[in-house]
Amino acid sequence: MSLKVSETKLAFGGEQRKYTHYSEVLQCDMAFSIYLPSNKQQKEIPLIWWLSGLTCTDDNFSQKSGFQRLAEQHQVAVIIPDTSPRGENVADDDAYDLGQGAGFYIDATKQPWSEHYKMYTYITEELTGIASTLVPHFSGKESIMGHSMGGHGALVIGLKNTKRFKAISAFSPILTPTQVPWGIKAFSTYLGEDQDSWKSWDASELIKVTEAPPIMISQGTQDGFYPEQLNETIFLKNATENNQLINYKKEEGYDHSYFFISTFLEEHFNFHINQLS
Ligand SMILES: N[C@@H](CCC(=O)N[C@@H](CSC=O)C(=O)NCC(=O)O)C(=O)O
């Protein structure tokens, strides 16, 4: 195992750590961040997964959201993966919404992407195994949240693993990737033109047939990507038809940025903690 700590910072009494490791699933070197609360009372600690959006690394959420205060307050660990495989030998594209920084949390099947782009398996298997060794007194309880492309990732991973994740939440998620420009571009590149193969990576399809854990979604009304990339209509319709309750909230005047995320993050943490306790 090549796991190495590259950074440790004290934040609100807990530790914000950055790790590097060689990923067998992605076949490249990767970095991720994790926050470990102080756990002065030696209690069992749950784990929240945060998945970031296009162009991000694990640093965006770590450095811009201020989540550490909430994680320490609620004594919860938080793990933040990178958004794609990385490196000179990893396929890439000049566009911001394809290639490195845009892994879409799926397992690619089309060459050259399928060599490395296996973010779903990386997160649900390899990084899961690593996380379980890093959280002292881990309670085994997990939930998942994310932003934009990461909101899509949180919903897809949560809905594919409903026994595992106790809650799912998302800021400005891509809810129907098979029908919006970001998703169509990524899925046709990573999965090929057979659109049937896209469906198992679309939250609007999964919500039709899944008994979902509690789901909360926040969407700013002044988000420049809304409604084109982030339209909620199909997801909410399919959820209603399958009797799945979704707490979908529109926030007047907010945009797509981390200012929006940091404003409503406490509400999302409270929602997760209620399910993880
Ligand atoms: N115009 C930007 C587009 C990239 C962008 O807005 N990325 C968002 C996520 S969008 C959906 O997944 C983001 O989180 N950016 C990082 C941040 O710290 O704000 C561009 O061209 O790069």
From TrEMBL:
Biological processes, Gene Ontology terms: formaldehyde catabolic process
> SUPFAM superfamilies, from UniProt?
alpha/beta-Hydrolases
Q: What class of enzyme is it?
A: hydrolase
Q: Which GO terms describe its cellular component?
A: cytosol
Catalysed reactions, semicolon-separated = S-formylglutathione + H2O = formate + glutathione + H(+)
Task: Kindly identify the residues recorded as the active site.
Answer: S148 (charge relay system), D223 (charge relay system), H256 (charge relay system)
Q: Which PANTHER family match?
A: S-FORMYLGLUTATHIONE HYDROLASE
Task: Please identify the protein, giving its name as recorded.
Answer: S-formylglutathione hydrolase
